[in-house]
Amino acid sequence: MSEKPIPRAALNTPQDELSPAESVKRKGFISWLVVGWVAFASATGTFLAMIVRFLFPNVLFEPPQSFKIGFPDDFQIGVVDERFKALRGIWVIRDSEGIYVLSTVCTHLGCTPNWLRTEGKFKCPCHGSGFRKSGINFEGPAPRPLERYRIVLAENGQIIVDKSIKFQQEKGQWSHPEAFLKV
Amino acid sequence: MLDWLKSVVDFISTPSISLTLILLMFPFVFPPTAWFETWHRRLGLHNLWTNRGGLVMFSVITLIFVWGFTDVNFSKILGKPDNVPIMILIYSVFFFLWLAMKSAYENDAHIAAGEPVQEYYPPEDKVLVWPDLVYIELIALILMMVFLLVWSIGLPAPLEEPANPSLSPNPAKAPWYFLGLQEMLVYFDPWLAGVVFPSLIIVGLMAIPYLDSDRKGSGYYSFAGRRTAVFVFLFGWLVLWVFLIVVGTFFRGPNWNFFGPFEEWSVTKVVPLININLSEYVWVKLLRVGLPANPLVRESVGIIMLVLYFGLTPVMLARGKLRPLLDKLGSIRYSLIIFLALAMVLLPIKMYLRWTLNLHYIISIPEAFFNI
Ligand code: FES
Questions:
Q1: Helix spans in A21-152 (H)
Q2: B174 Cα: distance to centroid of ligand 1 (angstroms)
Q3: Cβ of A2 under 8 Å from any chain B Cβ?
């Protein structure tokens, strides 16, 4: 093997010691350190506060949580109405006794399931959860049924859906009178 | 003939079958004990880690891909720009596995013959970081940049329409490196499969050097000295991570149903998967009384089973086969290692329970967001 240069650090030269005149006075150094840290901490804190503030927008361009979806007769018995899925995130379903509103958010991890009409089930494309027309989970990993939203009649006979109030089956809330509109 | 072969491949790809085959083969390919080692040699599997074996593995993988590209359905999956990294992954995993195992087997032979390992250099023979190492790194860096540039120009990443919260693509697939996690999510509640297990994986991997303080094999490749440790690690890495990525990429189609690689991805494929909780099995099907109202009573069977699984198995193993491990590591390290291993094995166990018994959850308390 050819000879290799020896790294300088290995030569073990003693380091020159700093003369006292060159070194910063200890007391002054510490007070500069304090000023520096305080400045750094307050700058970081301000930035953090700004970031947190950023999470709460002044204006929210969201469709209202409570809205009218038409008259009960607009909905056919046995049909899953998908007209409101894209904008409002709900399915409206009418059975022989009445109407209920299901959320389109999968209770597993929040994907949007698809209504498969021929199979009569909602099927999630993310991990394969399946829900019956009633919203009950029966296949795949979803741990609980789809949520239902509040549904009531307005004075003029139109249906009002209120997404700010939801009813969860596993908590026994589906029997609440406003979870189901009798028609 | 080929069509027949395709349906055979489709059949074998069903995860319940392919995973079983892999699990059966695994200890013979990476023998964890002396008994498996004898069979490993007898079956000639040690020849995998030679030049010839590497060539055979490379040809088999390439042949499968070439065959796949000639098929209407398989080529649709293979041709996706998203899936190119997975093909690179498959090649590179096999290549580095082969390289490491080959070096390990050669070293083992050296050690058996009383010679120094390949990585051994006499202490006075050193290489300098600068310039020797830094230059190599610089060249590797530039080559990698060139590769990434050519790739991104030649095969642009697909830009799709803006995201729409009310419309999930069908199937909705995670980025390729997360497909193993996504597969895990099929069998577990999101907080387990999405939070607890990934943290356990990361923390567990970081803990390995502290839990396993055996210096044997450090600094050089070797298999014979660390066969069980290597087996356990490769099981987690190859089966529970890489294989699940392959499953997620090639075997999962619309509605997250299983499809063989040569099968058409039909949206209307119906697979009935009616899942039942363990509590329903016990209270309704077996005892024929209704579900108890109190969730804790209802789920008591599952809770007891899990407590026994995590509590009793380490004790029984310590009484039996793993006694030497306990003596060597001490009780704290021993129980941590066994806990991590048991948590790891819980995944295939749950997968099998789902496939065979349609088991939904072992413990299912949706009232409190607690499902296992
Ligand atoms: S998000 Fe729907 S199944 Fe996972």
A1: 26-54, 85-88
A2: 12
A3: no
Q: Do B186 and A144 touch (CB under 8 A)?
A: no
pLDDT tens for B12-66 read: 999 999 999 999 999 999 999 999 999 999 999 999 999 999 999 999 999 999 9
Rounded to the nearest angstrom, the minimum Cα separation between B330 and chain A is 39
Set of chain B residues whose Cβ sits within 8 Å of the Cβ of A104? 166
Task: State whether residue A86 sits within 8 Å of chain B by CB.
Answer: yes
* ipTM computed for the complex: 0.83
Domain boundary, last residue among A60, A78, A108 = A60
Whether the CB-CB separation of B259 and B251 falls below 8 Å is answered with: yes
**Stretch (H or E) spanning B59:** helix B51-69
Based on the domain organization, do A150 and A133 belong to the same domain? Answer: yes
Among B244, B252, B258, B275, which would you mutate to test the A interface (most chain A Cβ atoms within 10 Å of its Cβ)? B275
CATH code for position A71: 2.102.10.10
| The model's pTM | 0.84
Average pLDDT over residues A51-57: 91
Pairs of residues, one from chain A and one from chain B, whose beta carbons lie less than 8 Å apart: 86
Q: Are residues A134 and A159 in the same domain?
A: yes
For residue A122, being part of any structural domain is answered with yes
Distance A112 CA to ligand 1 centre (A): 8
- Answer yes or no: are the C-beta atoms of B253 and B259 closer than 8 Å: yes
Q: What pLDDT, in 10s, does the model give residues B293-331?
A: 888 888 889 999 999 999 999 999 999 888 988 998 889
A158 in reach of chain B (CB within 8 A): no
- Element spanning B103, H or E: helix B84-112
Cis bond before residue B198 (omega within 30° of 0):
no
Chain A residues with beta carbon closer than 8 angstroms to that of B133: none
